[in-house]
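Hi team,

As requested, here is the filled-out complex form for the 6-O-phosphono-beta-D-glucopyranose run. I kept the field names the same as last time so the parser does not choke. Let me know if anything looks off before we queue the next batch.

— J.
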Amino acid sequence: MLDSCFYALQGRGMSATLDSLRRHELPGLARFELGEGGLIRLAVETLSAEAHIYLQGAHVTHFQPANSEAVLFLSRESLWEQGKAIRGGVPICFPWFGPRTGFPGSPAHGFARTSEWGVAEVMVDAGGTVTAVLELTSDDATRQLWPHDWILRHRVSIGSRLAMTLEVENRSETPIEFEEALHTYLAVQDARQVAVSGLSGVEYLDKVDGLKRKVQNAEPITIVGETDRVYLNTATTCEVDDLPGAQRLRVSKTGSATTVVWNPWVAKAAAMADFADDEWLEMVCIETANAGENTITLESGGVHRMQSAIEVLR
Ligand code: BG6
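And here is what came back:
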């Protein structure tokens, strides 16, 4: 039953055409085009940065500030198919994170990342920052998987930093409970050399050690094997320091109590069909989230916002 609902969901979307989207374009700054696999994306190019945002999943796949390297990792083996998650960039996980407890047929990380979103508006402010607002609304297909009414808005601002705000509005008569993540794949030169700071003393669930609850004693965190950790009850900013001379990135956030650190390492990378065997060296995920015991309960009519901002420090 859940499987068939998911396939119905996968078949949705691609309703927008390039022609229907032209009215949102900002000449010289933001245009809609066919990207990888013929999927529609918004290409932004300003004096400060360039970026790509796919309508499928409201998925930011590329962000590169002027005079810097690309900030987001994107797999060269990503599938570019309607209804299939893109591997890299910033997938949106909603309304659950990871596998859905008690519902084995449900899609991992929810359905937001594989749904076609609509465009509400694209604007530019006086400082030249371009902001795109994408929307996803509950419908019969989503209600079969998750029986609630809601609207999601994802605001993506392209300036010298990348700022993303995921907004959830509860349009149901009753409270809703959900998990969410901006599952950010940061590009690094060598995952074995990176140092992740900002989580000292924070408790986490270690998904590669039977979900044991541990405390982050060692700082900075280094990647020395498969790493899949759900840091709980933390609002702190993280920094990712790459090789000497390479980039130092900062991930700051609001409205988020969970941070996930993930690198698949060798064996898991080899087992992933949409990820090249050696690409685990090129990425580390620092995910701004609300998951597990930080699940959000949102009253009827309520709005919850989670923001993540990524900037290059060096
Ligand atoms: C991470 C999870 O957020 O996403 C991992 O903590 C998971 O357990 C990873 O493997 C990738 O998930 P997916 O569904 O995109 O392969």
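Two things worth flagging: The chain has a mean pLDDT of 95. Residues 2-10 form the longest helix (9 residues).

Thanks,
J.
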